[in-house]
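Write out the 3D structure for:
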Amino acid sequence: GQPRDSRALDIGCGICANSLRLARRGYLVKSGDYSEPILEQARRNVAEQGQADRIEISRQDITRLDYDDESFDLTLCWGVLMHIPDIDDAIAQLVRVTRPGGYLAFEEVNVRSPEAVSKRIYWRLQNLVRERKIRFVRTPIGIEHTGAFLPGRTEADQAQRFGGEGVGEAGAQQQDHQQQIFHRASCVGTV
């Protein structure tokens, strides 16, 4: 492992679940996400877990990160790239901010996996049984889901709750990036 107080970036951090894991392992973490409403939840989560001294949270666009070159010993990008149309720019930024010899860890998903297919079938059944309005939309970057996931919430309420615009300024409409409909496929490497 890396020494205590190594610097980590958790980009697309959501509610900071992975940031908290990294902080507990001794990392000093910078956490970024494009959705300001989700970052408000992340800040509360980090404070409640007593890790505010080890995790710094900011709004970030993955295609234009606000960090210096070679700033991080570990860069974590968990389930984010599938939502970014400008994937080349995003990956270039992740490489740029990771120090030589540092680690760059991705987690992405496979839309055709048994897990992904079964989740879509389950959600379609939920639409029938619970009158939820979850729709699946094929985009150039994969299958996205839209709709009201919380009982009594409209699509507009849900969009406002999760930032409405999605992840990245040119990103696909991803209203709730905490609920994934895809299967995981991981990649870890050194820069």
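The chain is about 30% helix and 30% strand.
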